[in-house]
Amino acid sequence: MTPITEVEGRRLALSNLDKVIHPATGTTKGELLHYYATAAPRLLPHLRDRPLSFLRYPDGPDGQLFFTKNPPPGTPDWVRVAPVPRSDDPGAHQVLVEDLPSLMWAANLVAELHTPQWRAAAPAIADRLVLDLDPGAPATVVDCCRVALWLRERLAADGLEAYAKTSGAKGLHLYAALEPAPSERVSAYARRLAREAEAELPGEVVHRMAKALRPGKVFVDHSQNAATKTTAAPYTLRARRLPAVSAPVTWEEVGACRDAERLVFLPADLPARFERYGDLLAPLLDPERAGRLP
Question: If you read the UniProt record, what top EC class would you report for this enzyme, in one word (predicted)?
């Protein structure tokens, strides 16, 4: 029988809690849900008013993975949805996860949480910029860190303060809070930064997606600033062999990175980081910290 749990007055059917989702660590679905409940105070502010897309992996990272933007079948009527105009479906709606019951419902789906760089109230008007630094083997996150430091200085030259988090996969994500601007303008600026990075670091960076160009270099992916694209949300778990978290990191950690394993964070690592750092990405939520796009 599926247990029924009450979360802040909402009744939830949380299924298969003993099911092992990540065999490499023996991590169960129940442990994943516990992580999300613990992370909720830090995670939820970064989801607020941002339509969610889900990369679901109910049978673990080696099972079937499927990406969905539409509200999944069986979405409770108390989970908020918002209209999200899309070229493929002008009447589309997507889920908004803004409270603990909604988060636990989403976590029960066993899914990565992905958000756009804009809010439901203003589609295609970005309030942040993101650069996804993706290493092509044999490059690693150590190489991403060197590129991140260069990009941090370059963004600062334009009056934008950068914040870093692990992707939860192989690389890093860099964010900057923006005064709202059309996604097209943000995309063009991000593309320009990626090209500049390649010109300044030609042996280390590539700005084009072609896989043939990427071995041994860091791909600075600027495409996630497009209005139709999304990025793994802060603090989401990833559908990887290890249950890695897309976790914020300090610039001291980025600068000191000499070992790729040092920037892998599992759910058990996050409580101590919350205690020590709070939410390192909190400035992204403060309109007073937003910079103006050049």
Answer: ligase
Q: Give Cα separations from 49 to 13, 33, 78, 163, 244 (angstroms).
A: 25, 22, 15, 21, 25
Report how far residue 54's alpha carbon sits from residue 113's, in angstroms, rounded to the nearest whole number: 5
For the segment 34-40, the average pLDDT, to the nearest whole number, is: 98
**CA 196, CA 128: separation in Å to the nearest integer?**
20
CA 105 to chain centre: 19
pLDDT digits (tens, 9 = 90+) for 216-275: 999 999 999 999 999 999 999 999 999 999 999 999 999 999 988 889 999 999 999 999
Q: Which two tokens stand for residue 158?
A: 């334009």
Answer for the pair 242, 265: CB distance below 8 angstroms, yes or no: no
CB-side exposure of 184: number of CA atoms within 13 Å?
0
Say if CB 231 and CB 114 are below 8 A apart.
Answer: yes
Answer for the pair 161, 292: CB distance below 8 angstroms, yes or no: no
Cα 49 to the center of its chain, rounded Å:
15
